[in-house]
Structure formats: structure tokens, C-alpha cells
Amino acid sequence: MKKGPTTPKGFRDINPELAKKRRDIINKIAKVLLDFGFVPIETPTLEFAETLLGKYGEEEKLIYQFTDRGGRNLALRYDLTVPLARYVANNLGLLKPTFSRYQVGQVFRGENPQRGRWREFTQLDFDVVGSESIKEDARVIAAAIKTTRVLGLSNAIMVINDRKNFENIPLEVVRAWDKYHKIGLAGIKKELIKKGLTKLKINKFLSILEKRRETERFNELKQILQSNEYRLEFGNHFVLDNKLARGLDYYTGLVFELLPNDKIETNRAISIGGGGRYDNLIGMFAGRQIPAVGFSFGLDRLIELV
User: Fold this and answer.
1) H/E/C letters for each residue in 86-102?
2) pLDDT tens for residues 98-153?
3) CB-CB contact of 145 with 159 (8 Å)
4) Is 206 helix (H, G, I), strand (E, B) or coil?
5) Right CATH for 16-305 from 3.50.50.60, 3.30.420.10, 3.90.950.10, 3.30.930.10
6) Taking the domains of the chain in order of start, what are their residue ranges?
7) Which residues contact 9 (CB under 8 A, 6 or more apart)?
8) pTM for the model
9) Burial category of 84 from C-beta neighbours within 10 Å (exposed 0-12, middle 13-18, buried 19 and up)
10) What is the pLDDT of residues 21-67, one digit of tens each?
């Protein structure tokens, strides 16, 4: 029997059974987010390339870019965060004084497809824009953890770190350090040697990073999450991981990643989602600093676990 055309590598059709499961999970997550005060928005799949470029660091090479018939340099969105920043900059009246939104949408990355990782996939983001208060970081984290419990992932745990731990550390060292659980200390040293750092400097920076632990911001967050408002337990619902950096350049404060259980070293490769504080990104478009914090679920990996 003759078959029809295939899809490009990393892109796929979704059959009715999986589509229904995806929709059920999205609806459950949306209900939790509405309860936490987040409202839905939608943004275009396509952006001007200049909107996305210069925001993702070394990950920028994964952006799908092209020139249309009108000679415009366009790109498929890499995530939902930078489009949110553009949206807020064009709708500052939403900040009363904060704006809490969630969004479900397709994003595109030109990376090597593997299990649970596609070139087109669905993200579900939620963010609070307009406040520097660590209470908003706590609200975002609590909403993500609450969602996992509603979905039946009773062992899921949030690992948290503070980008303050990376002050005075070169960016290439921070990016390599974030791969600690994947390639180990030896792999980090090998990567940094290839980037031209001397062994003396590498050992110096890694020694500093290994000693950095809880910060004042983390301890404040810890108290809020353990308070009567959220009743989350340190060691059960969330932990500190001083190896966590998050690869995107726009993060400025606390960063976090949601894992299926507390086996951090083996599960960093199958993260359910991640996020953090990014107080400078929206200002690139708005012309003034507008603080923000958010989280993004990777829906495909979440579905595999539910």
C-alpha cells in the first residue's frame, strides 16, 4: 500500500488517544493556575528574528530563522518567555501593579531529537510580571508543585539555586557547571579546557562553586514555602542544588527545576520543567526595568510520567 509523505525529523502527528490525554492534562494544570491567580493569553508562533536573538546565549543557535518573500527576517518562537516580554512591553497597562499569566503553545528548537525531546513541542508557561518580591517566586514554585500533586506525581521535587552563587564566575564556567549531573566534574574540566581556560583557573572557579550553598534569598524563600500559606516541606517538596544554573542567559535570581523524584543526579536529564527570576529581560523591550519570575512545563515529558 502506498504511504503518504512523512513528517520532517523531530516533528510528528499526534493521534486521538494522545491528543485527548494532552488536553486532559492541560485542563488540570490550567485549573490549578487559575486558582493561583494566573490568567490565559496567546501570542503568535512567528516573531521577528531580532525579537528573539540575543536572549538565549549559546542556545540561540537552535532558533529556526528564515527570510520571507517580503525580505523580513523571521523566526519560530524558541520559548514563550521572550514573546511574553514583548507582549508586556506593548501592554504596560496590564501591570496593576502585577500581571500573572499562563500560556500553552508550540515552540521550536533545531536540536537533535531524542526520547521525550522534539523539534516542535508544547510548553505550558506561567509568570508573574511587575514585582521583585520573593513572595511571587514562592507562588510560582508552589503552583508548579501543586500541579504535580494534582496529576498524581507525588514524588516530584523542585530543586532550587540562586544565581547569586555565580557572581564573579565567568559565564562559560557557569554554563559548564550546569551540566555537572550529566558529565561530572571531569567532563566540566574537559569542556572548559577546550574553551581555553587554564587548569589553574578552572580549579579556582570550581572550588568556589563547590563551596557556595544557601543564600539569604534562598533562606527567605524557604521560610515562605514552609509557612502556613503553602505548607511545603524542605527535603520533600523542594531542595537546594548548588549545581543548578539554568542555561539561559536572562535569569537573574532564584532558578529552579522540577524533577520526577529526589534522585537529582540521574533525573536532571528528564526534568519536567524549569524556570526562575528574570528581572532584566522585559526591560530590553520596555525601556525600563520590569521584574518577572516564571516557570515552564515541558508537556511531552510530563505526559510520559502521568
Assistant:
1) HHHHCCHHHCCCCEEEE
2) 999 999 999 999 988 776 678 999 999 999 999 999 999 999 999 999 999 999 99
3) no
4) helix
5) 3.30.930.10
6) 16-305
7) 113, 119
8) 0.89
9) buried
10) 999 999 999 999 999 999 999 999 999 999 999 988 888 999 999 99
